[in-house]
Amino acid sequence: MKKILLFAAIVFIGIMCIKKCDRGNVTSGTPINGYVGTVKSVSGNVLTLTSGLQARLLGVEANRTDVEMFLRSQFLNKEVTLYADSHSKTQYIISPYDIVDVYVVQNDVRTYCINRQVVREYPNSYHQSETFDSLGWIGPARIPVEKKNLALYMKQRTFLIQTPEGIGTGFFINEDGLAVTNWHVLKPGQEGNSLAVLYQDDPNDSQVYSNNKRNFKNIKWSSDVNGLDVTIVSVELENGEKVPFFDIARQRPNQGDAVATYGNPHGLTASFTKGHVSAFRKDPFNPNRNVDLMQYDMTTNGGNSGGPVCDIYGQIVAVHELGDKSMQNTNYGIDAMQLRNVLDKLGLNYGGK
């Protein structure tokens, strides 16, 4: 009897060892690709989902507190989809408590995978040696480059708006003259008697000139001040003319990140100012308005409305809207993620799409 039990135990252990050794080549179970879950907690570079599955971010160094804090601040309680590296032997989930090495994409957000967002934020956390698909998913070579002369870059893509009611600012988002401003700067029906005035290329010349005036063709979309307070409009360019344009960022900057704006405060045309992101919040002046605003400490005035708010890479992160006159250097812009959603729904071509 003892011999039979011993033989059975040996067979059982042998089977378990075979299963364990062959685990990397399993061809059954739940496919990793397309697995959807919600992030419950974060530890280092591992996201634990509500199902119990642990998703370790491929290409991201483990045991880094800065990475963990970033992941917690951005992705807790977010729904995500997992993808295995195409060269990995592990393509299936056997147990709901497995640890899988994956690329992770936040659902319903048009942005880079989470792995790449981490590497973009912390470039020295990148570990290419453990990935094969890294150029397609994480590729630091495709990370935006900081603009050495951000003021000139913004000047070339921004313009003065003159309407019967006053002035404001607008900016281009494609080479064919598609542009963005505030609704309260350019309302539907005003495009026929309003002008876009382009700035001079000379970085030392902040004046505007009549030969740089362009008409507006038509308003593509608009939402009033109780909504997004945005007008998307087409500027009529000269024959064969192409204009420089901004890319719209694929993700929010972080609190404390540097930002800049360009515009025409109180008629002082082609003015540049910079500051930092203070917070993200709903409209403090209109609690019934369901719009995400970015708060920043840049100095702005009337005439800046509708202007670009950029990160250090020259990407649009907000559309400047208004300032709090009761406080010093407390101003707000419309979060660019909402602008991306509108442009995508309209099927319009824009920088950074």
Describe this structure in words.
The protein has helices at residues 2-21, 65-75, 114-121, 134-137, 150-155, 336-346, and strands spanning 30-31, 35-43, 46-49, 54-57, 79-83, 92-93, 99-106, 158-163, 166-172, 178-181, 195-198, 213-223, 230-235, 247-248, 258-263, 271-281, 293-296, 308-310, 315-323, 331-335. By secondary structure, it is an alpha+beta fold. It has 2 domains: 2-142, OB fold (Dihydrolipoamide Acetyltransferase, E2P) (Beta Barrel); 144-353, Thrombin, subunit H. Strand 9 and strand 10 form a beta hairpin.
In short:
The chain contains six helices and 20 strands.
Whole-number mean pLDDT: 87
Q: If you compute it from the alpha carbons, what radius of gyration comes out, rounded to the nearest whole angstrom?
A: 26 Å
| Category by helix and strand content | alpha+beta
User: What gross morphology would you assign?
Assistant: elongated
